[in-house]
Write a structure and sequence with these properties.
It comes from Parnassius mnemosyne (clouded apollo). 81% of the residues lie in helices and 0% in strands. It is mainly alpha-helical. Helix 2 (20-30) crosses helix 5 and helix 3 (37-55) runs antiparallel to helix 7.
Length: 192
Amino acid sequence: MSQDQEQQVKNLKRLLEGWRMALLPLKAVFLWEQRWHPCAIVASITLAYLFIWLLDLNFLATIAIVGLVINFIDFLVPFICNIIYSPSSWTGQKEKMFEEICRSLVTQYNKIVHSIHTYYSLRENSPCMYYIMSITMSCTLAWMASSINNIILLYILSIVILLWPGIQHRGIFNTLLSMVNMAPKVPSLKTE
């Protein structure tokens, strides 16, 4: 790991210091260590979106409410963790797991940033491909947004994002890709 990534890990550890006791069980949930964890993730997201749907607020009010809830959670979690867990309960093994979580988050963040930079570097390296991809993605997103309710799109996106770590950890995506690659190929019609 490069020196820059090590510094990013240290900064993230310092930033998440109050959340460290909450992150250990959250890691278990996001990696599906129990069978019911995916159901809990989907149920919690469903309840959150049901609440947003029942409130039927306009866009700015919804953003404000979501911001208030996030700030409230950000205040309560460290406070509750400090009350429930004593500092002596933090062991070297938990510190190692916490550092592993931070390292994983930094790695995923850097992969996303690298992918974005690679995409935008296409503009200089291969402008035709860049514009084809940009226009295709924009048209597809515009068609989806006009055809499907935005809340449902956000709901599906939220579920996919929160289930993705467990999907990767269990190797489900790689299994599906290997099944697609092993599927019998349709012979192409050749004219002689």
